Input
Amino acid sequence: MLVGILILQALAGCGSFVRIAYNNIDFGARYMANDYLDLEGEQTDLVRARIDQLHQWHRREELPKYVAAIDELIVRLRRGIEQDDITWATDVIQTRYRAVVRQGINEVAPLIDRVTPDNLARLEKKLAESNATFERDNLQKDAERRRNERLRTLTKRARDWLGDLTTEQEARLAAYADASSPIFSGLLEERKRRHLAVLQALRSNAPGSERAKRLDSLLVHYEQHRSEHYAATSLAWQARLGTLLLDLERSLTAKQRKHLIDRLTFYASELRILARDGT
Output
């Protein structure tokens, strides 16, 4: 599970270092597992072996699917994006996320019975620290400062993918940043609810296999456990994001479209090499 999360985070910003980042992602996952659980003795070796297996599975099974999705996205970009394409992309991302998280849970399931109260106390502490950092960065800062930081992040990501932006495109990003505030307060509460549910599942007296099923429900089908209010807020935010992407795509210059397709082609090429390395 940690490998999958790290992969999605790392590949988004590693540019020409895609292969280096991916080939070392298991190290990052081991570090995170130890940081969040404070592993001891045999636990360290067992977790390392499971993470290595998950990494091998991901290289063999998932990378080819990522390549196919990128290739399809390029085809769709060349003909022009419509709402159906946004729906398709959302489905692809969700499907791949669910596959990685489910496989991660399957890998760690045999180890759940070895988790100690000290491990869970450490996990609870780290999750609380993570939520405190999220609250500080997204809710406690001055509203204008938070808005400007979100806009800087959005603008940087857009420029990474598209190159120089037009004044109209920058205005669309600014409007999206202005409208994004409500998602964060709801997201903090949602994080806390989900973290509590995960801790309760791990601390239960049920067999490890039953606790793994509960984790699967919480983390793979997370949307089923959302509060009604946050579910509505999240759907509205996703719709707003889809509108932004459509508006940006329809405003692309020929140069920007080429920049985007070239960047996607590069990622697909790198992932093909990585997938072959696992065969």
Remarks:
- The chain is about 85% helix and 0% strand.
- The two ends are 22 Å apart (CA to CA).
- The mean pLDDT is 89.
